[in-house]
Amino acid sequence: MRVELAMAVALAGPLAGAAAIALFGRRPNLRDGAMIVASVVTFLAVYRILPAVDAGGRPELFLFDFVPGLGIRFVIEPLGMLFALVASFLWIVTSFYAIGYMRGHGEENQTRFYVCFAIAISAALGVAMSGNMLTLFIAYEVLTLSTYPLVTHHQSPESMRAGRTYLGILLSTSIGLQLVGIVWTYGATGTLDFTPGGILAGKVEGWPLIVLLFLYMYGIGKAALLPIHRWLPAAMVAPTPVSALLHAVAVVKAGVFTVLKVAIYIFGVDYLSETGASTWLMYVAGATVVIASLVALTKDNLKARLAYSTVSQLSYVVLGAALATSWSVVGGAMHIAMHAFGKITLFFCAGAIMVAAHKTEISDMAGLGRRMPFTFAAFAVGALSVTGLPPLGGVWSKWYLGLGAVEAEQLIFVAVLMISSLLNVAYLIPVAARGFISPKREGDPVPQPVGAAVAHDGHEDEDGIREAPMFCVVPLCLTAIGCLALFFAADDIAAFLAPIAQR
Amino acid sequence: MTAHLPALQVVITLLAAPACILVRGRDLTFWLALLTTWAAFAVSCLLLDQVMTSGIVSYELGGWAAPFGIEYRVDALNAFVLLIVSGIGAIVLPFTPRSLLIEMVGEKAYLFYCAFLLCVTGLLGVAITGDAFNLFVFLEISSLASCILISLGPHRRALTAAFQYLIVGTIGATFIVIGIGLIYGATGTLNLNDIAERLPATGYNRTVIAAFAFLIVGAAIKLALFPLHFWLPKAYTYAPSTVSAFLAATATKVGVYVLIRFLFTVFGVKFSFDILPTALPLMLLAVLAMFVASTVAIFQDSVKRMLAYSSVAQIGYMVLGLSLVTVDGLTASIVHLFNHALMKGALFLAIGCIAYRQSSFRIDDLAGMGRRMPWTMAAFTAGGLSLIGIPLTAGFISKWYLILAALAADEPLIAALIVISSLLAVIYVWRVVEAAYFREPGPGAPSGEAPLALLIPTWVLIALNVYFGIETSLPVGVSEHAARALMGAGP
Amino acid sequence: MVDFVGLYNYWIVVFLMMAGLYLVIEHGNLVKKMVGLTVFQAAVFLLYITLGKVRDGTAPIIAEGIETYSNPLPHVLILTAIVVGVATLALGLALVVRIRDAYGTIEEDEIGDQDGPAI
User: Which of B147, B155, B162 shows the shortest C-beta gap to C119?
Assistant: First the structure.
């Protein structure tokens, strides 16, 4: 299979999957099978591209031009390759998980759900592979629109409200700011192609450059900088697989991926550091890291806490872009992968707890770990990875980001990273710890009459809680193992990403 | 044959109109009307091709030489407008027979086709003619015919809407005719090109300025420029859906054409924008239209009325583009002229599909429509996305060029306003989408898709929206060509 | 002063125009609106005819002894405009008849009272 064909398959695979899912809507087993097949094919196609990119190639897929020189173009470079690999791999895992979750939870409208899900993946891959800013923008918008039905899946007034927040913030920032930035860039430079070293150098200078950076950074609402992060917690009303894939991988990572793309290939890392145009962004990103972590501490709802944790972690990547050094950019890019695996594990666990125990509040989860050992063990692994402790993947991205901060002589951000890690410990570890260690709350009838257990369908536990279905547990164990594996793969990833930081 | 294309463009439909009354049979008149509009569409395609390959086509009606006889003068701009009018007519007309049965009196259908053809004739005539008074006559033909079409709406309020349209339209046309008279007094000629050549010699005296004012205000009424738009929402709301689709897509566009023609060709850039400060007021009114009308649209209960207000806002974009007085701005205006015809036509046709199943257009009554009429609502949503300006739709191309033009003209504020106002479109489109897809249908809500005869024209327009969102060489190429000519034509 | 009186045609035009517009705007009676519209249009006819008049000119007939004659073109134009005006009037009155059938009145405010909120 030629590489260009593989790109086409990777982009079209999820769409074909969506069509098949819609076609088999009335036969759930066939439908879910189609989804699995599509996800595997998509991943294999993406994987097929890897050797070519690793060898220094930049495979290109050209569709058509809007205006001469400006059209739909897909080019893969290491950064996009990494994002595409992560997104397509996690789609497979999430597909299994979603099947377990949606069936276990008895959700309605499953077909619509899976169709939109597949379209969203296609859009995320489109973002990853886009060869110019316009293509990226289009894929970005498709991603927003296709995830809206997922957020409002329950059709309750609450989810409708959340959906409005979601769409309102994402569309208004992307059309209101990002598009203006894009048109401005096009007007100033006559091109929107992602070019190593950037295209703006010498074309836009001084204050306008800072304004342009502002338009981009706040136009990419999916990167969830304060104060436009509101959509992310709001979107947590969605079913958990959505939160897992979209808000740990596809949507938010598409946001920070775009941030990196813009910083590297539109502005140019060197141009940013020379002009200091991104200094303000460092502080905004640093503030987002700390403030969102603090907010996360106050949340008792597990998904809400994870959501704010995501807001905080996303700004690591933005910080990496803002520091504008070769280390920080690599660290930011690496964080996309590291955080994706860590956070998706955490969300999977949150969903598994919801399916198995119907618990959403952290304070209710005391002691659950003994009955759901795999889930809580995986949660602990994910939490440690997000915090950034060895031997888990998360440590490396923070390491490179720290190096970047030193290189940029912005030592304050080393401190920010440290404080954030401490806060991570404070808000994530207790969740896992409580599950295993916390004694039962008072009032629980500790000595059980022997006959009571029999009354609960023969379960051993007094309240009938046990591990979630296999479809849920296996994926979350896989991603937890992934966190571990990434720790050892970090060198390879850094070497693979090195070209994006080259001058 | 090709030498007589300009005359054929108008004559075909003009002759078919009385023929409809002679024929009378419902199906027969339909096919007659259909064939003639398609023929007119073919003629306009040929004309555009001819203009783009070999330049301006001039046709002397009845063989009378230009400044004395009536000249039909086709350049890129009006060839493009002709294409829009006849194309939309050709697509919308197949929609009517099934729609007529529901919304209008079936047995008098032949009168409808007669009025429809007259309306097409009038709009084509306004666009093609190079003679000022001829322009007025065609304008009146189109406005009287469209008044009849509006009055055929299913609700009795269509009558009052039509009456108001008649009064306001006549006042607008009379303003134009006063302006033409004053220009004639000042220059002694009625040929638009001849006027343009002779005007500088008048020293732009007060007569010319008065003529200018009358003409611009008259055109502004015709194109429903805020705040002279008050007749439009009522007319589009109560007219039959086909008529709303056709008029929304063409009538105001021809109004914009008249404005552009007078501002740029007849009076010339120097007089219109350098000597008189026309650009700023136009820009302000355009921005006001974009914001006020979009905001009003958000608060409408009826989808049709919402779309009507959205039209007023979209006209703001067109006027905004030309008020930049640059080639880029004019290009954006003309591109949007075309694209808006496609999107509004599609949206109103989708409304027509809904009308086939239920008589209410209230947004609340559209609850669950996404499941009851999936194809119709999918079309509506696609049209709505185009209206917002989501990429891969025609609307995006319009916004792209408009913002680019504003930035190129050093008006970043205007660019920002364009963007913000398109966010208002997100709100009003989304209200409908939300009701249709994420609310359960009320008890007793009718269900079942509209017939193919209605769906196909709707989807043809949607397909064009997507096609011209991707392949832009036709609208952009023609518009740029036209804009260059217009900006260069000034003295 | 001579100019002022000499241009009296134009003053009449302006007066008729304003009177017509005022009628259209002010009157709630639909028939009276049509009357106003017709007066407004008539003013324009007069304007055109006045434009065509050449001082001391006669009718534009080619005959011996006629040196100066009025411009015939505006007259021809106005013939067309009158036709348009008649069509407008006819259509307007037809609509008024239909409105009366539907509402039982031709007063604007009474019509407005009869319909509920927008559909």
Answer: B155
Closest to B152 in 3D by CA, of B246, B19, B293: B246
Contact, A318 vs A217, CB < 8 A?
Answer: yes
Assign B342 to helix, strand or coil: helix
Close Cβ partners of B286 (under 8 Å, ≥ 6 residues apart): B225, B226, B316, B317, B318, B319, B320, B323
Helix residue ranges per DSSP H, B129-156: 132-151
Do C and B count as touching (3 or more CB pairs closer than 8 A)?
yes
∠B257-B258-B259 over CA atoms, to 5°? 90
pLDDT tens for each residue of B76-114: 898 999 999 999 999 998 888 877 666 665 667 888 889
Spans of all domains in chain C: 2-110
Whether residue A319 contacts residue A401, with contact meaning beta carbons closer than 8 Å, is answered with: yes
Structure tokens that stand for A331 in this block: 């660290």
Among the listed residues B98, B214, B147, B117, the one whose alpha carbon sits nearest the alpha carbon of residue B458: B98
Share of chain A above pLDDT 90, in %: 3
- Nearest chain B residue to C49 by CA distance is B181
Beta bridge partners of A64: A72
In terms of Cβ atoms closer than 10 Å to its own Cβ (0-12, 13-18, 19+), residue A481 is middle
Kindly state whether residue B192 falls inside one of the protein's structural domains. no
> CA B398 to CA B378: how far, in whole Å?
22
Tell me which residue of B168, B171, B169, B192 sits closest to B180, measured CA to CA.
B192
Q: Is-cis flag, bond preceding A227, omega within 30?
A: yes
Shortest Cα distance from B148 to chain C (angstroms)?
8
In-domain check, residue B2:
no
Expressed as residue numbers, the domain containing B292 is: 277-491
Tokens of A70: 């400006």
Q: In this structure, are residues A192 and A134 in contact, taking their beta carbons and an 8 Å threshold? A: yes
Identify whether B324 is part of a domain: yes
**What is the CATH number that goes with domain C2-110?**
1.10.287.3510
Is-contact A115 B368, C-beta < 8 A? Answer: no
Looking at the DSSP bridge assignments, the partners of residue B159 are none
- Cβ-Cβ contacts under 8 Å, B300 against chain C: 118
Query: Block means of pLDDT (10 residues each) for chain B, length 491 residues?
Result: 82 89 84 92 91 86 79 89 93 83 68 91 92 91 92 86 92 92 89 88 87 93 88 89 90 92 89 87 92 92 91 92 91 93 92 84 83 87 90 88 88 86 88 84 75 88 90 87 78 33
Residue A466 in this model has a pLDDT that exceeds 80: no
Whole-angstrom Cα distance, residue B471 to residue B464? Answer: 10
Identify the DSSP state of A438.
Answer: P
Nearest-neighbour CA in chain A from B59: distance (Å): 34
Tokens at B243, concatenated:
């008529």
Q: b/e map of A348-371 (b: 16 or more CB within 10 Å)? A: bbbbbbbbbbebbebebbbbbbeb
Q: How many domains does chain B have?
A: 1
CA distance readout (Å), A403 to A269, A418, B145, B192: 16, 13, 75, 72
Give the CA distances from residue B440 to residues A91, A426, B366, B370, in Å, rounded to whole numbers and listed in that order: 31, 44, 10, 10
Strand intervals (E) in A222-364: none
Q: Is residue B34 part of a domain?
A: no
Tell me if residue A388 falls in helix, strand or coil: coil
pTM of the model: 0.84
Q: Two tokens at B338?
A: 């075309």
Taking CB atoms and an 8 Å limit, are B144 and C87 in contact across chains? yes
> Which chain A residue has the Cα nearest residue B402?
A183
Return the amino acid letter for A127.
V
Q: What are phi and psi of A75, to 5 degrees?
A: -135, 135
**A362 secondary structure, DSSP code:** G
CB pairs under 8 A between A and B: 63
* ipTM of the prediction: 0.91
* Chain B CB contacts of C117 below 8 Å: 301
Which run of H or E residues covers position B62? none
